[in-house]
Specification:
The protein has about 350 residues and is α/β, with parallel strands linked by helices. About 50% of the residues lie in helices and about 10% in strands. It has 3 domains: about 10-185, Rossmann fold; about 190-265, Helicase, Ruva Protein, domain 3 (Orthogonal Bundle); about 275-345, Orthogonal Bundle (Arc Repressor Mutant, subunit A).
Length: about 350
Amino acid sequence: MSSFPQPSSSDSAPLAGIIGSSHAMQQVYRLTRKVANSSASVLLLGETGTGKELVANAIHALSDRSSGPFVKVNCGALSENLLESELFGHVRGSFTGAMDNRTGRFEAAHTGTIFLDEINSTTMLLQVKLLRVLQEQEFERVGDTETIQVDTRVIAASNRNLMNEVREQRFREDLYWRLNVVPIEIPPLRDRREDIPELVAFFLNEYNEANDRYVVHIQKEAMQAMQGYNWPGNVRELQNYVERAVVMADGDELNLDLLPDSIRSGETILTARQTADDIDSITRQVVQQGLAEMAENDEGLYAAIVDRVERELIAQVMKSCDNVQTQAAAQLGINRNTLHKKLKQYKLDS
């Protein structure tokens, strides 16, 4: 009887340049290796600072295009006109300031890979042109009529839920399905806390060398605080704080005093919950009707009130986060699995 091949342990081994051995990251490594040698478009999903560019680099390096160029474009950093010129190039005189012909990034990535970060920032008009490149592998420079053929693999990334963007008519559905051939979700740091010691050690080594320091020990309390923090800025935030600790350390130890107050106190969770003030209407109703007092004498009523307030809180936070569960979980100060269960419990998962 035939059976499907089981993934080998090497499939889930860390990729070059990416730190972390957690189960969540092993899934990323397996998917990355599996998709690398295909020609399929890849959509990388995850919050800012999770390392989407590193995964895009790994896909290119493991592919049969690795000898070709790897070209990165941050779509959120440029206006529509500038981004169009950046992607497709332009001819002299096509717009004010176009003094010479310019080769675009798609053309520069011929035989290689182009990484379109923050693809959700593109306008609907530009999305039409991106769809054509993906489908036909051709385009025209801005201001030109000559069609240019390219052989370029596209990896896109988004820090927002693109399906929600489609529903809100901010992103073309046909482009979404063309990009979303193989989605890879990069987990936020709070969902892989077991990777934090390894990441801290890596960044300590990097910044010791860069700053001629010798911070090689990590205080137990400091590590506990870092593993208990919610990391809204993800790995990038951790990297910045480790660099600061190395620069500010007087001795050879990264201790609690070198970390910001927000990490020492777990302030992000409190702040995130305080910012969910969209539940004001429900909370005020509960207080005004005197239900809080009544609840002290009635366990069933108390539970009903708590459930009602919690449901409204989760609904409002999900709305403010465009239904991106990882972001909503961070706002609420809970992990994504807990949020998923709550959504199902309160029938908000649809």
